[in-house]
Amino acid sequence: MVVRQLVVIASLLLAAVVLQTTVLSRLGLPGATPDLVVVTVVAVALALGPGPGALTGFLGGALLDIATPSDAIVGLASIVLVAVGLAVGVFMDREESNIWVMSLVAGAACGGAALATALLSAVLGSERIVWDVVPGVTLTTVLYGLILGRVMIPLVGLLSRRLVPEAYLD
Amino acid sequence: MPSRRIRITIATLLVASLTFVILDLRGGDGPLSSARAAASAVVGVLQEGVNVVVSPFSGARDSFSTWRDQASQIADLEEENAKLSEELSATLSDRARARALDELLRVSSTGRYRVTPAEVISVGPAQDFAWTVGIDAGSLDGIEKDMTVINGAGLVGRVLKVNPTTSTVVLLVDVSSAVGGRVATTEEIGIVSGTGRQDSMEFQLLDPLAELVIGDALVTFGSRGGRPYAPGIPIGEVADITGSAGQLARVATVRPFVDVSQLSVVGVIIRPPRDDPRDSVLPPRDETVEGESIDEGSAEANADAGDEATVDGEVDSSDAGSSNTNPAGADSANGNEN
Fold first, then answer.
1. Closest residue by Cα to residue B299 from B275, B279, B270, B278
2. Separation between Cα atoms, residue B238 and residue B255, nearest integer Å
3. Which of B320, B283, B276, B298 shows the shortest CA–CA distance to B180?
4. CA B118, CA B122: separation in Å to the nearest integer?
5. How far apart are CA A145 and CA A103, in angstroms?
6. Nearest residue of chain A to residue B51 (CA atoms)
7. 3-state secondary structure string across A101-124
8. How would you class B295 by CB atoms within 10 Å of its CB: exposed for 0-12, middle for 13-18, buried for 19 or more?
9. Beta bridge partners of B256
10. Which position among A92, A156, B18, B132 has the lowest Cβ density within 10 Å, counted as fewest Cβ atoms?
11. B residues 139-158 near A, CB within 8 Å?
């Protein structure tokens, strides 16, 4: 059962990372790139709880650092995404079934993750952050997170119900 | 509150993440390099696969990329029209890729760089504030860290990380990028640094009294051994100057020749040229020059070369370029040693 959960999470993350770096980054959308990985973490946390949500966050962050072109500090994305998975899993009411509220949570998680990553990078000494672009990036990432959440959360919920029903929380 | 088991899991994951952060801050390759090689190989294959599907749509945009002036644009359109009626069967993406490779070949043959072509298969997310892309060539193709990356328009960036089958390239507009640049007309030297913005970089001249005008083109000065930057590669042109000559706060804004949001085919310079190509790789300027004097700088050779993009023009420009590198090259060979 744990292995099956792990396989489902790993496949979701792999698809999210590949799609985010090949399709979504090249679309040339204004502001931030739609953050499919954060939305996947939120969707898994909503469907399977805070434990699997945090694990998804850790693995997603590790995959982003290792396998995509980025010069960020390795491990930073993992910390932020573990926190996102945990927070969403713990604070979201399991009976909440309104898809728009859940999409809003996904959007807020994207914005929070982007801000937290920028702040932590600055604290750890990275000099790349262009602070006057940060508000625009945060706003656009919340918007894209909302749209992606509307699509991904029901999808992941459906997959969890079918593939790992014993872990699915409802 | 979450159960005890969940709390233990969370604590373990956070400790592992913090360990990664500390190891990365400490510097060096770290114990993750084999995991990185394996993961990047797997993800790289997937990215190349998706790229095959996606590239016809981004290739359509590339085939309408920038040309230099009205006259050459009209000539190009007429010749393109003729080609189109002959080659109706060729697909749009193949043609765009062929043009991008043609441009790359022109740059590499004019400047005599030994280039390995590669394709951009992934783009780092904008939230990172780092301008990085992934290409599908790695150490197995001869790529090494700190090699220069160019395309048909000019300098793209340098290689940051190398995996067996893929590499990460940091672009010239990234904040950590600083290239030694030379003004094409006046030969003044300075540093071009990325600002994190896509279409403006900062240029600081070494000599604060040097003249600089809007429209001046910049080429790379070249580093020792051609790493991280080979000499003679077009960087961009001066778009704006604040302050006047003599002021320490004088800052020039440079617009890069390369459109970093539309990268597809790039070339990694495996071996820099024997002689500094100086200004011969720069595209021709708008002013018309009479006479064929080749003892003057390369700006005139470029103007004489005429249309860069037509087939005839390509032959002329590479002849004019290569005939000009010899006298200039001999002069700069000594300068290049430094």
1. B279
2. 6
3. B276
4. 12
5. 7
6. A22
7. HHHHHHHHHHHHHHHHHHHHHHHC
8. exposed
9. B236
10. B18
11. none
Distance from CA of A139 to the nearest CA of B (A): 11
Cα–Cα distance for residue pair A127/A89, rounded to 1 Å? 33
Structure letter (DSSP) for residue B28: S
> Is the ipTM of this structure higher than 0.95?
no
Is the CB of A22 less than 8 angstroms away from the CB of B122? yes
Count of A-B CB contacts under 8 Å: 176
Supply the pTM of this predicted model: 0.68
B336 Cβ contact list (under 8 Å, min separation 6): B222, B231, B275, B276
β-strand pairing of B234-242 with B217-220: antiparallel
Which residues from chain A sit within 8 angstroms of residue B30, using beta carbons? 74
- Cis status of the peptide bond prior to B228, with omega within 30 of 0: yes
Hey, is the C-beta of A116 within 8 angstroms of any chain B C-beta? no
Tell me which chain B residues have a C-beta less than 8 angstroms from the C-beta of A129: 129
Determine the distance in angstroms separating the CA of B235 from the nearest CA of chain A, rounded to an integer.
21
Distance from CA of B18 to the nearest CA of A (A): 6
Q: Which residues of chain A lie closer than 8 angstroms to B51, CB-CB? A: 22
Question: Is residue B290's pLDDT more than 90?
Answer: no
Quote the CA–CA distance of B110 and B7 in Å, as a whole number.
63
The answer to whether the Cβ–Cβ distance between A75 and B126 falls below 8 Å is no
Q: What is the pLDDT of residues B162-207, one digit of tens each?
A: 988 999 999 999 888 999 999 888 888 899 999 888 888 999 888 8
pLDDT confidence band for A169 (50 / 70 / 90): low
Cβ-contact B285, B303 below 8 angstroms: yes
Which residues are within 8 A (CB) of B201 and not within 5 positions of it... i.e. 6 or more apart?
A: B172, B173, B192, B193, B194, B195, B235, B236, B253, B254, B255, B256
Distance from the Cα of A98 to chain B's closest Cα (Å) equals 23
